[in-house]
Amino acid sequence: MPESPSGNRSLRRGPREAGLPTPDPLPTPGPRQDATDAGSPIPGRDTLPAERVTPAPGGDAWLPQRRRAPYPASQAIGAEGARACQEIIAAARRLFVERGYHGTSVQAVAEATGRSDAAFYQYFRGKLEVFRIFFEELGVDLVDHFQRLPVLSAGPAGFAVFRAWLGELGAVLRRHSPVFAEWPLSTAEAALVDNASVDNPSEEYLQVLAASLPSRLARADTGGVDTRVLSVAVICIVEWTHIVSDARGRVARHPGEDEALHDALAGMIHRSFFPPPEPAPRSCEPTPHSPGPSPTGPVPRPDLAALARAAGIAGPTGTARTAGPSSGEVPAQRDAPLPPGLRRSVTGRGRSTVETIAEAAVAAFEQRGLAGTSVNDIIARSGVAHGTFYRYWTDRTAIFTTLAHRAAVHICDHFDALLAVGTVDELTCWLDDWLRIVERHGTVFHIWTCEILDNPPLWPLARAVRLHLEDVVARLPTPRPTATTPTNTEPTNTTPTTMTIVLWTVLTEFPYNAWLRHPVLTREQVLHCLTLLMARGVLGLQDATVTNGRAESTRSG
Question: Which residues lie within the region annotated Disordered (predicted)?
Answer without folding.
Answer: 1-67, 273-302, 315-350
